[in-house]
Each structure stands twice: as C-alpha cells, then as structure tokens.
Write a structure and sequence with these properties.
There is one protein chain. By secondary structure, the protein is α+β, with helices and mostly antiparallel strands. The protein folds into three domains: 98-201, Rieske Iron-sulfur Protein (3-layer Sandwich), CATH 2.102.10; 211-259 and 267-311 and 322-435, Naphthalene 1,2-dioxygenase Alpha Subunit, Chain A, domain 1 (Alpha-Beta Complex), CATH 3.90.380; 457-518. The protein has helices at residues 204-207, 234-241, 247-250, 307-310, 351-356, 359-387, 392-395, 404-415, 437-440, 452-481, 489-517; strands at residues 8-12, 18-20, 39-44, 57-58, 79-80, 98-102, 119-122, 136-137, 143-144, 151-152, 158-160, 181-182, 184-187, 190-193, 225-230, 274-280, 283-288, 291-296, 300-306, 324-335, 338-344. Strands 15-21-20-19-18-17-16 form a seven-stranded antiparallel sheet. Strands 2-1-7-12 form a four-stranded antiparallel sheet, with no helix packed on it. A hairpin with a 2-residue loop joins β17 and β18. The chain is globular, with a radius of gyration of 26 Å. It starts with 7 loop residues before the first strand and ends in a 10-residue tail after the last helix.
C-alpha cells in the first residue's frame, strides 16, 4: 500500500514483508496486491509527486445555515499561512504510522518461517531491481528473490548470493546487498508501517505507537473490516467520509436515513448541526447532533452514533440500551489521484449477526454504497484540478454547517500539512487520465483480490458456475446418446429439465458474480 513515497514495498506473512526504496532515501508506501500470491507490495516509488507552491491560502470557514452568533461558525474569518516556514508547527508526513491492511486480508499461505511476525521491505532487489513482492519464502524463512535467488533475512541482510563462490569474498555482507526494512507493527489486527527507514526510527514503536481506537479492542463490539483502493486522492476520500449531508442523495435507497421534521424533498435532506470544537496539528474533534467525531491525522476518522437518539426513540433513561454504532475509517495516500480505504463499523448490538454471516456478504452491500458515489468523487477531483485554484475554497462554496468537518479537514491540511500530501517533489501535480467507467468502478482488482473473504467466495462461486454448466452439458449429452427404448420419457424429461435448470442457474450466477465482484454501475437518474 502506498503511503507516501517509497520505492515499492512488499510484505509476506511471518516471513517478511518487503518494501522498496532507493537506498538511504525515505519514500512512501504503496502496497500492490497480487492475486493468489503470497506477498503484498507495500511501497511504490514510481509515483510522481506534487509540491505545494508558495502562495498564501485563506482560512476555510462555514457560514451558519441560519442567522446566528459568530461563535456558532467553525472559526471566525481570518487569514492563515500555508506551511511555508512561517508556521511554528509543520506536520511531518513521514513521521507517522500508516495502516497497510487488516491482518485478516493478508495472505498467510506461505511456508512457515522461524519468526511469527510481519516485516516490511523495499520491493526492489538490490541486484537487478526485480520486485521482491514476486518472490517466495524459502525453507529457512528467508525472503528469496525469484530472479536470481538472492535471499534476505528479516532485517534486510543478504544471507545468500548463489552465484558467489563459497571460497570467494563475502559479497553478500556488503551494505549494497542489503534491502531496506521499514518499522512495522500490528495493532487492532491491522498491519501498520512507518515510512521512514532512517536508523533513528529503528525502535520507533517503543516511543510512538499507531493511533489507538478503543472501540476496536472492545470485545462487546463487533468489528468486521474491509479494504478497497480508489481512483481519487486521499484528500477527496477523507473529506467525503466526513460529510453526512451527501448520504440521502448519493446513496439514496441504500442507506436508511432518519426522517426530518420538515421534509423538503424526496430524499430527506435537512440542516445538520455540526461544529469543530478543537483543531491542532494532531487533527480535530467534532460534534454533531447525534454523536461525536474525531480526525486523527493523517489517516483516521471515526465517529460514534447513539442509535436510540438518532432514531428519535421515545424511551426513558432507564430503558435505554445504550446502543452505539461506530464508524472507523482509515484513509491512506497512495499517489495523486489514488488512495486506499480501510473501514470497520463496530457496534454493540446485533453482534451475533456478524459472527454467522460471511464477511463477503457484508462487503457486497458496502461496495455498492462505495460505488454509488465513486464516479462523483473522481470527477470532482479532476474538476478542482482543472480550475487550477490556489486553494480548495476558491473552487468550492460551503455556506452551511453541514460542511463543518470538511472545512475543518481542509483547514488542518492547509495550516499544518502544507495544503497537499508531501510527495517529496516527485509529482508534477497532474492526475492520472480518467479510464472507462467500467474500469474506473472495477471491484475485482480494487477489492476482491485483496480481501480474503471475497476472494474465497469469488473462487467458490466461479467453481459452482462451472459445475452447473457441466451438469447441464452432461444431462443433455446423456439424453442425446441414449437409445430411445433404453430410457423412459419421464426420465428423459427430467434430465432435460435438469439441464435447463442448471444452465439457467449458471447464467444467473455468472451475472451475480459479475455485478457483485467485478462491476456494478449505479445510475442516480433511475433510483
């Protein structure tokens, strides 16, 4: 997974997760998941990155939805500088932990290594720059490059160069033969990586741990997880996850919404009471009518919703069940125009459902929701870029309180983060060209291959489809080759009927697989 920039990284279970980076250069991570392979590319340095210009940008603010005092807006109007050296605090994009992938979605089908942990390496073999993510774990638990067989231990040290004479110089011990290893850890059953391999960060886990989200460790809450890659940037992803006002419209018919007292349209949109209560270099705290929210820079946004309050349940304090539903969103920068999303929806009611229903069934519905506004976000990002606005507010008009968290995020990004992700000057600022709609909204390569549950279900359903087709052909074949007096009309009719049923079922299943595991368009005009 890409975080900021790294030459490319790889990860494999218990053995090693390899990650690539030019020697002695810090880069950001991009895990590239290979279908049915035993490892996962974590970093990718082949990105062009975008540097922020030196112009000043304004503080973003929202106006109250109705006349109100100045204290009801997010912040009073004022100017703020970009992070151009004038600010005392500057957010360091390379000195934070980034989530790579839920452990449940990392492929563990590799030879058992001697270490029961994950490691993150640069994804480039120092010999001829082959990707270590296409390598294997040998019988001694070493990461082996399949190009020429060079082997590396968990610390990135080269332990074997098969082509080097045993009685010759120990070239495998040279520094140039080593692979960079990034600090990594597992928390909340998620693999995290620190995208800076400088020696000073070797034991960073002892000084600074990944952000802690208590609900992900609370046994009274369910916590199914998922992941997906998107064809739009980190900024667009995270700001829209903070925006509940778009739910009745972009996801109409897919998400249950509370009925407002005054309904102004079919969808049920209404004014939302939202405000940012605290904003600093570490993120911000937010408050809305039905709960509270937190942005933990740079990746995490989570919110707590009081279900009974949200539904307007008329029950006494003693009768309240204190049902809580939480949103935990992790947004990872991959490159300009690309991002990775890891999500979980912990709740402390109906937990038994999550234990008996396969995870892939939940992902079908969740991916449909994600697809319903994917195209909007992709186009939105391109339009903002086309306007060549010096800051986000020049392109967008945000007059109501429902945009408070979006404005809060853009304020944080502008004030502390330099206005954009720090890509170390590798990108020109241009976004990737827009692919055809079917490729843009593809589920298979952006989710299925990197989700253990969906990948298993996809292969199982494809096998069932082939079995149904085979049974149909066999049934027709038996009827065709059997002599007329050797089988009764009832048996013949039964076999023909079975063939038709199997064929019809296989066609239905093929469509089901395509719509739920490959591509499902969403036309807002017909919902």
């Amino acid at each position: 997974m890409d975080v900021l920039r790294a030459s490319s990284s790889t990860l494999v279970h218990s053995p090693y997760i390899s990650t690539t980076t030019r020697r002695n250069k810090t880069q950001f991570l991009k895990p590239i998941f290979h279908h049915l392979k035993l490892k996962l590319t974590v970093f990718d340095s082949s990105f062009t990155l975008f540097e922020r210009n030196g112009s000043k940008s304004r503080l973003f603010m929202t106006l109250p939805s109705s006349p109100a005092s100045k204290t009801e807006s997010i912040e009073p109007p004022m100017l703020e500088l970009e992070a151009d050296g004038c600010e005392k605090e500057r957010f360091d994009w390379y000195s934070h932990w980034y989530p790579v992938m839920p452990i449940c979605d990392l492929d563990k089908r590799v030879p058992h290594a001697k270490k029961n942990e994950w490691k993150v390496f640069d994804d480039t073999c120092p010999h001829r720059l082959a990707p270590l993510s296409d390598g294997r774990i040998d019988q001694w638990g070493r990461l082996q490059c399949v190009y020429h067989g060079w082997c590396f231990n968990g610390n990135g040290d080269c332990k074997l160069i098969p082509q080097a004479p045993l009685d010759g110089p120990p070239v495998h011990t040279f520094k140039e033969a080593c692979v960079t290893v990034y600090p990594s850890t597992v928390q909340h059953d998620i693999l995290w990586v620190w995208p800076n391999a400088d020696p000073q960060y070797k034991d960073i886990i002892m000084k600074k741990k990944p952000p802690y989200v208590p609900v992900l460790d609370d046994p009274s809450f369910s916590r199914l997880m998922g992941n997906r890659e998107f064809p739009f940037g980190y900024e667009v992803l995270i700001e829209n996850l903070m925006d509940p006002a778009h739910l009745p419209y972009a996801h109409y018919g897919l998400i249950l919404n509370s009925n407002p007292k005054v309904k102004v349209d079919r969808e049920g949109g209404s004014p939302l009471g939202m405000k940012v209560e605290k904003l600093d270099i570490n993120g911000f705290n937010g408050k809305q009518d039905w709960g509270c929210s937190y942005f933990i820079a740079p990746c995490i946004y989570h919110a707590f919703i009081d279900v009974d309050q949200q539904n307007g349940s008329a029950i006494s304090e003693t009768e309240k069940s204190n049902r809580r539903f939480c949103l935990v969103f992790m947004c990872v920068p991959v490159s300009p125009g690309k991002s990775r999303f890891i999500w979980s929806f912990p709740k402390n009611f109906g937990v038994w459902i999550d234990k008996i229903v396969p995870r892939w069934m939940f992902h079908i519905g969740q991916n449909l929701i994600l697809d319903s506004d994917l195209y909007l976000f992709h186009v939105q990002e391109h339009k903002i870029m086309e306007l060549e606005a010096t800051n986000w507010q020049e392109a967008c008009f945000v007059p109501t309180k429902s945009d408070a968290f979006v404005v809060g995020f853009r304020r944080w990004l502008n004030k502390y983060g330099g206005g954009v992700v720090d890509w170390k000057g590798k990108f020109t600022g241009a976004l990737p060209p827009s692919p055809p709609r079917e490729q843009l909204m593809d589920r298979y390569w952006t989710h299925v291959v990197s989700c253990n549950s969906c990948n298993t279900a996809h292969k199982g359903l494809k096998t069932l489809e082939v079995m149904l087709q085979t049974m149909s052909v066999i049934s027709i074949g038996i009827v065709a080759v059997t002599k007329q007096n050797m089988i009764s009309m009832v048996a013949k009719s039964t076999m023909v009927s079975m063939a038709i049923i199997c064929f019809t079922a296989s066609k239905w299943l093929a469509q089901f697989i395509y719509k739920n595991f490959h591509y499902h368009d969403y036309n807002h005009a017909f919902v």
